[in-house]
């Protein structure tokens, strides 16, 4: 399985770099804006997808958000590797980790452009949520694990 947790400082540098490149840089957000306060919390699970050529192709994270509930955040696949199953495998890995923790549902706030991807992975649209950077509508989605 090409998905694993990041371990070394090099892994984590590549992990946050890809998160920044995909989710922050295109909207002119400053370096550091890709970090969340609970990234270093022991309950937060990080996932790194390494391509056969050794490149970090995708990253994502999950944390326990409420009793019985997991939340996925910061899913980012390098554009070079998009559409090749990387996102699906990252999500499968995180959902499996959540099940092992006894969590029974997973929620996320999807960018409008990613809603159809999450629907293919079994998520249902719950409601519209926030708009990021004044221009990216998000939608709350949910899946029974
Ligand atoms: C959205 C994203 C995570 C999907 O990852 P990916 O590796 O490109 O997707 P996969 O190749 O695993 O796709 C799995 C399936 O979903 C489909 N799919 C992927 N992206 C899709 C999209 N935007 N719209 C509709 N379907 C999509 C694929 O065709 C594939 O279908 P299949 O089951 O018939 O094979 C990735 O494209 C990405 O990082 N996008 C930019 C950042 C982003 O929007 N992140 C999510 C923030 S909420």
From TrEMBL:
InterPro entries: Acyl_CoA_acyltransferase, Bact_Acetyltransf, GNAT_dom. Pfam families: Acetyltransf_1. It comes from Hymenobacter elongatus. Keywords: Acyltransferase, Transferase. This is GNAT family N-acetyltransferase. Residues 1-145 form the N-acetyltransferase domain. PANTHER family: AMINOALKYLPHOSPHONATE N-ACETYLTRANSFERASE-RELATED-RELATED. One of its GO terms (molecular function) is acyltransferase activity, transferring groups other than amino-acyl groups. It comes from the Bacteria. SUPFAM superfamilies: Acyl-CoA N-acyltransferases (Nat).
């Amino acid at each position: 399985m090409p998905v694993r947790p990041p371990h070394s400082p090099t892994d984590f540098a590549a992990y946050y770099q890809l998160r920044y490149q995909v989710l922050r840089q295109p909207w002119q957000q400053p370096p550091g804006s890709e970090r969340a306060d609970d990234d270093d919390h022991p309950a937060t699970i990080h996932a790194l997808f390494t391509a056969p050529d050794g490149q970090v192709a995708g990253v994502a994270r999950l944390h326990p958000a409420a009793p019985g509930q997991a939340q996925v955040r910061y899913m980012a696949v390098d554009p070079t590797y998009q559409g090749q199953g990387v996102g699906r495998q990252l999500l499968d890995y995180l959902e499996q980790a959540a099940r092992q923790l006894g969590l029974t549902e997973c929620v996320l706030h999807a960018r409008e452009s990613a809603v159809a991807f999450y629907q293919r992975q079994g998520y249902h649209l719950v409601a519209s949520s926030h708009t990021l950077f004044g221009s990216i509508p998000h939608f709350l989605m949910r899946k029974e694990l």
